[in-house]
Amino acid sequence: MEFTIPDVIDVEPDMVKDNMADQTTFSPDLDLALIVGSEKKSPEKERILVSSVVLRLASPVFAAMLSPPWMESQGLSTKSGSIKEIELPEDDATAMRFICATLHHQNNDTIVKEVPSGRTFLHIAVLTDKYDLNRALRFALVCFMEAASCRSPLKDRACISELQKVGFSTDDLHKRHLLAWPDLLDFAAAAYLLNDCKWFNKFAFDLMAIHRQSSADFLLDDLVSSVLPPRFAVLLGERALQFRLNILKNIQKRLKSDSKYHCPCGGGRYITELFESFVANFDDTDDGLGKPLASLLYDMEDPAQEDTFFLQDYCS
Question: In what order do the strands lie in the sheet with 32-36?
Fold first, then answer.
């Protein structure tokens, strides 16, 4: 992402702007104030007091912004005793507060202890990429992605069974403290930006499994579309469709060609009826949107289990 180095100004230690809603302090050696946010994005800005040494060590971008040669070229003092202010109007205040708390080892801070929402985590990933902080924040970000994956609607069979009754709706998922498809999309976009293939694949698959509408929905969000390439939506939609077609194709092929289903005891007819019922209800929904893949795979488990015993010569 392109990013322009902002202006840096000198202020006295006791000066705090009137339009600051909060002032967060992460270091006793205060020599830098990050003024995050803009009036367009939120009513008030946030002032975060940090140590410039910590930021320089963690981020090559901040190191360039705060280097003596660059500061002198801007006519700014490099002496201690004054607090430099950096305006960051394009950045998300919550995401920057998380980053600063993590870099300053403030592990008891609430913002670090709680798993962020998908949207907040995506903002964190955007700033991580912008300021080249991936190496410094890697451990914390992976821990949060792992914790978020435990809130996936696909975490266990009982969970899928319960969610089938409510159609994997966003409101019902959030009531159960589970990730809805917009959250999974945000986490997938964040993993993509962080170049983490493992978690990108995990969140993308879960997204494909519970999303019912067109994959074009993924491109309607400005932040997500600025991170993920358009081919993401195309490929995910294609693979979801191919998944559905393969399920139907394999069932129909087996029912037509496998002679074991025509056994004299009638066991094969029972299996046939199970599969035919599954096909008949394949996309039988009241709203016409079709079943999520997660529901189809869940519905497939019982007939597939019966079929396994049958094809192992259980019926002879």
Answer: 8-11, 83-88, 32-36, 45-50, 20-25
